[in-house]
């Protein structure tokens, strides 16, 4: 009996590894009332799943991420990770900051080692550095260990940020538009790296992005948020593309344009009008799960529209 | 454009220096007509009146005096006749003592003010009122309470060097980038480790700027303080030589004070460069 309930609860934890339950953020408004940035936000992320949130600026995406990191606490509701409510920052959840947030007075090795030493305070210096070097190698920066952040390009800095986040072997990674400050080529290669690392390590990841193609390439699940203030989760898109997709051939996959059009339509119009005509049967606790697919057989007019 | 900027600047500096020495030399050579006067009175009027030469020493007199001081900087022939090296050592020791006490007070207090907006607001009125007070205004109070002139001048050095360090430390600590603090928070870094590994290195360049301003002010103030309290020190030396009407020695002192001040500033600048990080 005991065995069964434990297995059951572990399955529940895997299914709802991250569970966001009715969170809200309010700010005092100038007129004395309150402005609601978002409220009644519910969704969950499975263990090992890559979840992207897209939405326009001001819908509170970054706040949701900060709440998952424990840097901010929700005004209402609760966030649960692996069965525990988030009450503050934790080494279980690594954050990759948009601005990379490397410590400029430390070398690449020093930055990663700082995180490793925070994770395992009792380790010897040797062990810390060896562990740090392993992750620097993973992101392809071997040979640059002794450089300072000011000597690195934007893409290399973000790689160090990724190495630092992975080095603490977190239960999940939180990424706040990690590639938005990079040029297109660097962004592409870093997306490849992140996808490879996440697939290899089975890392659960929560990422914010503005880039629809990035979301389609990386995410298993894409959460669509309407415009703020008063933002809400309109729907959750289940990415229909095969798990072994690669970036080069992404746009040749049959369902690619169906997902892309769906996401773009939402960003262009849906995010604005959703709030004013909420579909019948919409339950914020269970936002509709959508799986866009190419109409079969694909008509030429659809192709043209894309 | 055959020479580097530095070489050209050096050449100009050298020219200015030579021109200055030459002008100084010529100006002090100019003879004044000897005035007919009572010999007794003439004695009181000094060399200008009796021999027609300027009382202002020329560069050669000053150079001779510098050489004289360099030959024996540390002689001690009683309270009113000590080598310039001894006098400097007294002044530097006082500045160091007052300055180090100021560091020990200003850095922790600055940290506290920088970390706590409440303490920052609470202490602000005191700092704002105390900061503009001339340090020498504290001297009578210090002499009355401490009853020791040497320690009083150390106190004056303390009080004048504490403000820039305090304000810069508080500002540096308060303006540490939020993202670095967030890195420490997500890594669950303990407060003490955070203070030494994130806040201190991040604020160090600002703190050292404050320390550099402080050492400059301390060196300015020590001369004035020693003129007031007397006894020993380079400030006392200047005033004593004025009373001796040895203008050469006064000029030598000015040079020495300038050189020592520059060295002190450069030492702090060296440390400031060490802790500055390029972003």
Any key phrases for this structure?
heterodimer; A: 306 residues; alpha/beta; Rossmann fold; seven-stranded mixed beta sheet; globular; B: 279 residues; mainly alpha; 12 helices; elongated
Uncertain runs of chain A are none
Category by helix and strand content of chain B? mainly alpha
Task: Quote the beta fraction of chain A.
Answer: 15-25%
Q: What do we call the CATH homologous superfamily of one domain in chain A?
A: P-loop containing nucleotide triphosphate hydrolases
Order of helices and strands of chain A: HEEEHEEEHHHEHEHEEHEH
Describe the protein's architecture and organization.
The complex is a heterodimer of chains A (306) and B (279). Chain A is an alpha/beta fold. Chain A contains nine helices and eleven strands. Chain A has helices at 2-15, 61-69, 108-119, 125-138, 154-167, 184-201, 212-218, 256-273, 300-305, and strands spanning 18-28, 34-45, 50-54, 76-81, 84-85, 93-96, 172-176, 204-209, 221-225, 233-238, 289-290. Chain A has a seven-stranded mixed beta sheet, with helices on both faces. In chain A, helix 3 crosses helix 4 and helix 4 (125-138) crosses helix 5. The longest helix of chain A is centred in the middle third of the chain and has 18 residues, at 184-201. In chain A, 40% of the residues are buried. Chain B is built from twelve helices and no strands. In chain B, helix 8 runs antiparallel to helix 10 (191-229). Chain B has 279 residues and is mostly helical. Chain B has a domain at 84-275: Orthogonal Bundle (MetI-like fold). Chain A binds chain B through residues 69-71, 88-91, 93-95, 97, 99, 101, 103-105, 114-115, 118-119, 148-150, 168, and chain B through 177, 179-180, 182-183, 185-189, 197-198, 201-202, 275, 277-279.
């Amino acid at each position: 009996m005991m065995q069964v309930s434990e297995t059951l609860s572990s399955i529940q934890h895997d299914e709802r590894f991250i569970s966001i339950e009715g969170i809200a953020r309010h700010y005092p408004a100038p007129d004395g009332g309150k402005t609601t940035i978002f409220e009644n936000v519910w969704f969950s992320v499975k263990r090992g799943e890559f979840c992207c949130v897209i939405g326009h600026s001001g819908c509170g995406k970054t706040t949701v991420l900060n709440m998952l990191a424990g840097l901010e606490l929700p005004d209402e509701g609760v966030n649960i990770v692996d069965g525990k409510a988030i009450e503050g920052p934790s080494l279980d959840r690594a954050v990759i900051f948009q601005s990379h947030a490397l410590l400029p007075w430390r070398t690449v090795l020093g930055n990663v080692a700082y995180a490793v030493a925070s994770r395992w305070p009792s380790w010897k210096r040797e062990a810390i550095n060896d562990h740090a070097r392993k992750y620097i190698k993973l992101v392809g920066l071997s040979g640059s260990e002794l450089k300072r952040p000011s000597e690195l390009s934007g893409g290399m800095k973000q790689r160090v940020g990724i190495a630092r986040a992975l080095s603490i072997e977190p239960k999940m990674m939180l990424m706040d538009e990690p590639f938005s400050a990079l040029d297109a080529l660097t962004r592409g290669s870093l997306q490849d790296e992140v996808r490879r690392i996440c697939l290899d390590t089975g890392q659960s990841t929560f990422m914010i992005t503005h880039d629809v193609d990035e979301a389609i390439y990386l995410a298993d699940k894409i959460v669509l948020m309407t415009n703020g203030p008063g933002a809400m989760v309109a729907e959750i898109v289940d990415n229909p593309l095969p798990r072994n997709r690669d970036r080069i051939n992404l746009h040749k996959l049959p369902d690619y344009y169906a997902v892309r059009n769906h996401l773009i339509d939402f960003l262009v119009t849906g995010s604005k009008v959703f709030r004013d005509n909420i579909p019948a049967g919409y339950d914020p606790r269970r936002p509709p799960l959508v799986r866009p697919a190419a109409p079969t057989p694909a008509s030429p007019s659809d192709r043209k529209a894309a | 454009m055959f020479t580097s900027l530095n070489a050209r600047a050096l050449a100009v500096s050298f020219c200015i220096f030579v021109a200055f020495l030459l002008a100084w030399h010529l100006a002090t050579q100019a003879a004044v007509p000897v005035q007919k006067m009572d010999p007794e009175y003439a004695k009181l009027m000094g060399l200008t009146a009796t021999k027609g030469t300027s009382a202002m020493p020329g560069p050669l007199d000053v150079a001779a005096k510098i050489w004289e001081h360099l030959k024996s900087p540390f002689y001690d022939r009683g309270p009113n006749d000590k080598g310039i090296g001894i006098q400097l050592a007294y002044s530097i020791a006082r500045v160091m003592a007052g300055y180090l006490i100021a560091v020990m007070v200003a850095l922790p207090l600055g940290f506290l003010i920088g970390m706590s907006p409440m303490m920052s607001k609470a202490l602000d009125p005191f700092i704002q009122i105390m900061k503009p007070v001339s340090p020498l205004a504290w001297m009578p109070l210090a002499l009355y309470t401490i009853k020791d002139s040497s320690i009083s001048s150390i106190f004056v050095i303390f009080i004048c060097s504490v403000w820039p360090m305090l304000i810069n430390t508080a500002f540096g600590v308060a303006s540490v980038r939020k993202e670095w603090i967030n890195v420490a928070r997500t890594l669950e870094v303990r407060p003490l480790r955070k203070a030494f590994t994130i806040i201190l290195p991040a604020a160090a360049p600002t703190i050292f700027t404050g320390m550099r301003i402080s050492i400059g002010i301390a060196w300015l103030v020590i001369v004035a303080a020693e003129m007031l309290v007397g006894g020993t020190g380079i400030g006392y030396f200047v005033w004593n030589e004025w009373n001796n009407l040895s203008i050469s020695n006064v000029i030598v002192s000015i040079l020495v004070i300038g050189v020592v001040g520059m060295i002190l500033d450069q030492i702090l600048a060296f440390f400031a460069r060490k802790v500055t990080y390029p972003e």
